[in-house]
Design brief:
Layout lengths: L8 E4 L4 H10 L7 H9 L3 E7 L2 E10 L4 E9 L8 H16 L7 E4 L6 H5 L19 E3 L5 E3 L1
Helix pairs in contact: 1-2
The structure holds coenzyme A.
């Protein structure tokens, strides 16, 4: 696949902590401490990274118990590269990886937390925007410890 500059996009399965936080920063997501980022990346079930001239320009990863639950997270395409089907390719590769893992007669749950107004991006792959049926809205919160040692949730 080629981007607007005619440069080829290739895909790999790993990313450094610095490149991971650089991608997060460019879409205004909070920085993950180096230690936690390293643990997160090392414990990922699957990582897919889009490269342009060896520079990471997009990523998606799956966290899973390897049995029933698969959670797609950290779906990021650098703003300079958005709208070029890189995000679509990243999600397709992640879903392919999960589907290959599911044997005849098995069912697994694949979930994610869509960023605001990105629901349409995920619906094209078959994801349902919650609430639907007996599924309520997804829920999440941040848990931080501030410099005074107090736990803060947001
Ligand atoms: C969301 C994001 C990953 C999409 O990646 P992208 O590479 O720009 O998207 P693509 O070019 O692969 O889009 C594929 C298709 O989805 C559509 N699409 C993209 N964003 C959409 C949205 N928010 N709603 C509906 N459709 C959308 C595109 O129009 C395109 O349609 P087409 O196949 O008919 O041309 C990217 O915009 C991004 O990183 N945003 C900032 C971080 C973020 O919000 N991540 C998601 C966290 S849940």
């Amino acid at each position: 696949m080629e981007n607007m500059l005619g440069k080829k996009i290739t895909y790999t399965n790993n990313i450094s902590v610095d490149d991971y936080n650089a991608l997060r920063k460019v879409v205004n997501w909070i920085k993950v401490t180096e230690k936690r980022a390293e643990i997160a990346l090392n414990n990922s079930f699957y990582i897919c990274v889009a490269l342009c001239e060896n520079k990471p320009v997009g990523m998606a990863r799956i966290v899973s118990d390897g049995g029933y639950t698969y959670f797609i997270t950290d779906v990021i395409v650098h703003p300079d590269y958005q709208g070029k089907h890189i995000g679509k390719e990243l999600i397709s590769k992640a879903l392919d990886y999960i589907e290959k893992d599911v044997l005849a007669g098995e069912t697994v749950m694949v979930s994610l937390m869509s960023a605001y107004e990105r629901e349409g991006f995920y619906e094209q792959f078959g994801f349902h925007t919650r609430p639907f049926g007996n599924h309520g809205p997804g829920m999440s919160m941040w848990v931080s410890r501030d410099i005074t040692g107090s736990v803060v949730t947001l």
